[in-house]
Amino acid sequence: MSKEVLDEREFELVNIIGARLGSNQRDLSRQMNLSLGQTNMLIRRLVSKGFIRISQLNQRKVKYLLTPKGIAEKMRKSVKYTLNTINSIGLIKERLRGILSRLHHEGERVFYVLGKSDFVILVEMVFAEMAVEEYTLTKIAEIPLEHLDGILLIGEERLPEGFNGHRYINLVEELAKVNDPLMDKVYQN
């Protein structure tokens, strides 16, 4: 295993070369939003570190290839990224469990979750894992005009308009709180 660590730009270039065999330097610089000179410097650095090699196709054309060391580094970083993502999802689920448990403990039984994102799936998963009884969870695509008989869980970064007196919790904001007396407030409009 290599002790050399690739910086962000170097790893980005390794990924691009790994995905697009045969890209020329101009294409690489465009994809990375770098000058040709900066791209050339990165390529030379990666060649000297042994992560890529250059194959001369003809006098004017070269091909950039990942070496076994480059492939191994790409795989190592991809696995590390995947594990970090899985850990982050676990932390989000744990914080979400705290919010939903507290609401349920305080007597909330009717929940509406707004949105179509993967966040909605996380809310469903957490409720299923909590194994609580006596609750309803309804997915809605938009905020209804009529009054909701429960609490609206919003899993979108931008708050939609039209709350019309609905009680709601902005889950994104609550999950992002650093000081976490889990959720001090249910917003009232």
UniProtKB/TrEMBL annotation:
Please state what the protein is called: Uncharacterized protein
- In Pfam terms, one family for this protein is HTH_24
